[in-house]
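User: I'm putting together notes for a lab meeting next week and I want to include a structural view of one of the chains we've been expressing. I don't have a solved structure, so I'd like a prediction I can at least talk through. The sequence is below, exactly as it appears in our construct file.
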Amino acid sequence: MQATKRFDSTADSGKNAGQSRMNTSVLARITKMAFRHRLRMAVAVIATIAAAVFQLFVPQFLGRAVDQAQGLITGTAANAVDQNLAEAALFTTAMLLLFASVLRGLATMMQNYQGEAVGQIIGYELRLAYYQKLQSLSFSWRDRVHSGDLMTRGMLDVEGVRLWVSTGVLRMILLSILIGGGAIILIDIDPALAAIALAMVPIIGVRASIARLRLRDAWLKLQEEMSLLTRAMEENLAGIRVVRAFAAEAFEMARFEVISERARRISARRIGLFVSSTTQMTFVYFLVMGLVLWLGGQKVLAGTMTLGELTEFLAFMLILQMPVRQIGWMINSIARASTCGGRLFAVLDLEPSIANAPAAKPLAITNGIIKFENVSFGYAGQGEDHPTLSGISFEARPGQMIGIVGPPGSGKSTIASLLGRYYDVSSGRVSIDGQDIRDVTLASLRSAVAIVQQQPFLFTSSLDHNIAYGAPSTDRASIERSANASQLHDYIKGLPEGYGTLVGERGVSLSGGQRQRLAIARSILPESQVLVFDDSTAAVDAATEQRIRHAIQETVAERTIIIIAHRLTSLMHANEILFLEEGHIVERGSHAELIALNGRYAALYRLQTTQTGDDNLPSEAPQ
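Assistant: Thanks for the context. Below is the predicted structure for the 623-residue chain, given as structure tokens.
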């Protein structure tokens, strides 16, 4: 049980979860998940017990059959009637042996089926819970964790956990009954010989315990290497154009090979540990079996034990051969489930630092007035003496535009992130119509605030699906109006399949400007009261940008608009422009006012007009 909540802004990513000594609470938690499916687990446990019990009957029936057959061979029957009775008894024993074997097979089949079924259900539940958790965790946590590591947990770790039911819980029950029940039966026949026959159990148990620790450490290292391998592959595939552009295929191949070789060596070491421990356990088994055969043979010759009883000893040991080997597998399952479960639960137990407040209410838009009131903010790990934003205050109203400009790293995009509440302010307040955005539900806030990013993400789907992503039930006419406003409609209509054209992975089939225009269309389609354009026309030429701006002004005339840009032509028409530097607002005013101030904004304006060779850029001010 969790003693305290672990928030994703303060807790580590769980990368090293499970490196400490094995925590049995992880195994107990997985087992509890399994037993939530009561009917299936009840059937699996009953089938396991039945399989073990019928397995124990087999050596007894076999030993009885040997004694009965020996009696027939030696002719100990007094007359023909006794002979017939002996034959009938042998036939009955043979039928019981066959019946027990069939029932054992059926019970084993049901055990395996239900155990695997519960394991698959657990895997399904964990994948859904894990994916849902990743959707809710804050950006501050995602900033510290690589996607490759998260993907590894969602695949390999889930697989390691789901196998615990069949290879751990049910196998443990089976071995306990086989060893415990067999011990009682053998001790009843001959305590001394039983002690020798069962001597292999503690020896193998100790050896398996030692192997457990080594296998667990090796598995953890392999998981880390697989995370690195997944990360390298993901980065290479995402950046394949950069790799090709710089002819870096050989370098990337060499880097991938180094990580692969490390993973291969760890896998080889794991296999070596497993094979070594299994071989040693098997050697102990055959050594003990040989000793039982020799000592038991002496007892049979001395007349203190029947041949059937010796057969029962040997048959029981033969039956126990595979379960004894499976002790190693069970220990490996314990190690793997503990490690994988620890890594998974380290993520599942995190509480999002950005979440709905206990009394959060939906955002009620009345006017759409945004206020930043003395806002300061610093990212995790950033020194308190150098915050990203400090003392930011401004107001944005519907039908007006606020422009934000400044050098790289001045905190422009951070303002957009704070308005969408991807991060919480360190001090101060962000409000919409007087409502602190920390007191409203995230869903209502993000429905009201649409942020168009400089590098938009596009899904591998059709163009109309990407445009309507924020409003999936919208009609085609609305989709086309949004595309027309972003100056993308004519291009789409010229495609063979029009709006049904499939966009390549991450939008690689579109140019940078086309991706940005599609992102603009996607953002203005929903009825969001607030629109934030975060350098969203950086890849669009000036003429197209001007047409987009005029179209958007007509489409969203009553919405609150904030434009963040490096290029002054993108925001010089704004009602108020904020010039940021090192997280502070150092200048503010309209374009004309800032030019007249002859400060940083004016210097940047002169620099950009000189670089473009256009000295006649309009010094327009809002009417």
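A couple of points you could mention at the meeting. Residues 80-136 form the longest helix (57 residues). Residues 16-21, 614-623 have pLDDT under 50 and may be disordered.

User: Perfect, that's what I needed.
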